[in-house]
Amino acid sequence: MRRWAMVLCVCLPAWAEKEKLSEEERLALIRGLTAETAKAKVLIPRSKKPLAVSAKSVWDQAVWDAATKELGPAARLGELITVTKVDIKDDRIELELNNGLKSGRTWKDRVQVGVGNNTQPISRNDARATAGSYIAVVFDKKITTLEVADVKRILAPVLDFDKRTVTENYMENIPAPIKKAIEDKRVIEGMDKDQVMAAVGRPLRKERRTVDGNDLEDWMYGRAPGKLTFVTFEGNKVAKVKEMYAGLGGSTAADLPVQ
Questions:
Q1: How far apart are CA 7 and CA 127, in angstroms?
Q2: What torsion, rounded to 10 degrees, do the Cα atoms 13, 16, 21, 27 define?
Q3: Beta carbons within 10 angstroms of residue 198's beta carbon
């Protein structure tokens, strides 16, 4: 007597397939690309609209040339450029470079003051070093799966991303006590301004003052009620760090130890 086996095949409908990136994948792309620095392998124009690079690493050179003629370069061959914002859409990843068109020359850069032929600009900004733009990695269909390495690979002919992250490269070359403070999210004396921002971010407020002929700059963190941190710079180095507790009885924390 023969026995017949029956195999049941369950086929998922098309709508059950993955339709878009998960929220975790989106966050991983944003975190992995934001603040990354790359070296320009071609001239990167400034542009009002994102400059398209296809998933096959192809771009329209005529469009890029037209953008260069209109607004000039954001980065020349070999210059560094930083991803300052990442926007993920259905079929593309848009990267803001060097703060986009919010950076670059302003009316202040064209104004000079002085007497006779001895004049100088009122703004000291180097527009060439801060010129920005936008690049979009464009796919033929909706993005369903994508990793940071995929985006960097597609942009490799245009932007040369270092294998190591910006944070790793930066942390590798600073003194051990400062490195430890950055990892612990705290400020210590001897840090420079970039290291303070790496540790605790941008301040809520800045103030300048002169004491005994020395120019000082105070950075303030925190909000009342709660802990307030005051970081005092002399030149580019932290000279003093003080913490206070506002709105909680007026108590003041002891000065942080010098390290």
A1: 69
A2: -170
A3: 20
Specify the pLDDT at position 4: 46
Q: What are the φ and ψ backbone dihedral angles of 8, each rounded to 5 degrees?
A: -95, 120
**28, amino acid identity:** A
Amino acid present at 62: A
By the 8 A CB rule, do 141 and 23 touch?
A: no
Residue linked to tokens 């003051």: 113
Say which amino acid occupies 218.
Answer: D
Averages of pLDDT over each 10 residues, the chain, 259 residues: 45 52 92 92 94 96 95 91 94 95 56 57 47 94 93 95 64 86 93 91 92 93 88 95 75 45
The pair of three-digit structure tokens given for residue 205, joined into one six-digit string: 């407020």
Which has the closest alpha carbon to 88: 128, 148, 174?
148
Give me the domains of the chain, ranges plus CATH numbers.
Answer: 18-166 (no CATH), 174-246 (3.30.1450.10)
Estimate to the nearest angstrom the gap between the alpha carbon of 99 and the chain centroid.
Answer: 8
Distance CA 189, CA 178 (A): 9
How far apart are the C-alpha atoms of 202 and 221, rounded to whole Å? Answer: 8
Cα separation, 94 vs 74, in Å, equals: 16
Structural tokens at position 130: 């801060």
What's the predicted TM-score (pTM) here? Answer: 0.51
